[in-house]
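Hi support team,

I submitted a single chain yesterday and got back a structure, but I'm not sure I'm reading the token output correctly. Could someone confirm the output below corresponds to the sequence I sent? I've pasted both exactly as they appear in my results page.

Thanks,
R.
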Amino acid sequence: SSSSSSSSSSADASRSRREYAMITNDYGQTALHCAAQADAPLSVLQVLLDAAPEAANIMDCSIGSNKNAADEDSGAVTGRIPLDFLTKSYELFISSYLDFIDQDNDP
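Hi R., thanks for writing in. Yes, this is the structure output for that exact sequence:
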């Protein structure tokens, strides 16, 4: 009976960590997005990934107006996954986007 309640509370604790790790802010960012953006230690990223591995594939809405929104003209998906913060690929995305706007405004 005690081992049954022990495994039950362990499952509840694990579920709680996952739920907390999957909470998003107003920009659709999980704790993993925020930790990656803040250059948190690898150990912190590992704890968050262990709690909610699916958070690694969640795209935020910091560039677009809706989570996982698609740009109507190009069909490109806006936003970033946590890995984008770690690799700084969002800088490349912004640079490419600004270049695209400049080309569109050239006479």
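A quick pointer for reading it: Residues 26 and 61 are 9 Å apart (CA to CA). Let us know if anything else looks off.

Best,
Support desk
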